[in-house]
Amino acid sequence: MGLESHSGGEVSPLVRPTRAVVDTEALAENLREIRRVAPGRPVLGVVKADAYGHGATLVGPALEAAGIDWLGVALVEEGIELRERGVRVPVLVLDGAFGSDCSVLFEYELTPVVYRLEQLDALAASAGRLGRRPRAHLKVDSGMGRLGVLPEDVPAFARAARERGVEFEGVCSHFANADQGDEPSVRLQGERFDAAVAQVRAAGHAPTWLHLANSAAALELPWAHGTLLRPGLMLYGYVPAERLRGRVSLRPALRWITEILQVKRLPKGSPVSYGGRFVTSRPSVLATLAVGYADGYRRGFSGKVSVLVRGRRAPVVGVITMDLCVADVTDVPGASVGDEVVLLGRQGGAEIPVGELARAGDTIDYEVLCGISSRVPRVAAA
Ligand SMILES: *Cc1c(COP(=O)(O)O)cnc(C)c1O
């Protein structure tokens, strides 16, 4: 049928109708919108976790074509996947998880973030063997309490890098509360970051890339823009906090769809799915859908979410099972086998926003998106 899956770098024919359809034009529009709200700054697009579930091998090349300046991944493996798809822009590895032989970084032209002395040793040794220049971005822990060199250790770490010939071409940090806006803990992280940059310079580095602005900071905190923005969520078309919705015009790039596999009429009083926790309260028309929790349509959504069929909402009833679930289409005239069913995104004038699934699953938009499992093929919108 001419459709290709972009999951895991594989291309295979699509048979099951469940898929995540990604509109690469929306990605390009969202990038333009980020450049509008935060003008004059290069953008590093975060495409970790298979591009927030959108498919990195689809999103990476699309963002490159749209003029993105950098891409950011969590893992070395994710960086390799981008290079194997022909991505040429600089790629930053955000988690810095690499071992004593890091020649793979040079082989695939991946720039790591660093925060431990052993990483400096490894970079210097591999670069020496390969006749290359060891370069990295220093990660500073300015208050997130997770990854990074603590502020008081920055001067010694920067000197240690110089001694080993490792050049900090970037300095970065990560906000813990940027979605809360301009509040004291966010300010404090910014001040610590600025101090760290000064110390890195004093140690003899000349970092070009100063970055700590995730989506929320890119949108709201101009003082935190540094010389490179580092948004993820906004690129995919979502705001990092509800209160920011009016400030920016973004379009969700992903539609998660499936089809009706079977339609049946059941009398009032019929139990549905494991445990019979849902019992029809009227003569009902039920549609069995080709999606379940193994696809990331979480069991915890059971009884709390709806899908779109023929432009109307239909509640998911009974427990969501591994491969299948059931929607009540009694109020959707004409619902038939083969109808497109939208789990997330738009159909006609109706929409299931990601926040609706996040609330149902007692989680956040990010986790719903990257929870769409690798069993779901990612395809480019026609
Ligand atoms: C995920 C991540 C981002 C992007 O955050 P968004 O809130 O999606 O914009 C930026 N920087 C780092 C280090 C990250 O891990």
Rg (CA only): 23 Å
**Which strand order does the major sheet show?**
2-3-4-5-6-7-8
> Which structural class best describes the helix and strand composition?
alpha/beta
Instruction: Provide the low-confidence segments as ranges.
Output: none
Average per-residue pLDDT, rounded, comes to: 96
Order of helices and strands: EHEHHEHEHEHEHEHEHEEEEEEEEEHHE
Number-wise, the strands total: 18
State the helix count. 11
SSE topology:
Blueprint: E1 19-22, H1 24-37, E2 44-46, H2 48-52, H3 56-65, E3 70-73, H4 76-84, E4 91-93, H5 103-107, E5 110-114, H6 117-130, E6 135-139, H7 154-163, E7 167-172, H8 184-202, E8 209-211, H9 215-220, E9 254-266, E10 271-272, E11 278-279, E12 284-289, E13 306-309, E14 312-317, E15 325-328, E16 340-347, E17 350-352, H10 354-360, H11 365-370, E18 378-380
Parallel strand pairs: 1-18, 2-3, 3-4, 4-5, 5-6, 6-7, 7-8
Antiparallel strand pairs: 1-9, 9-12, 9-16, 10-11, 12-15, 13-14, 13-16, 14-15, 16-17
Helix pairs in contact: 1-3, 7-8
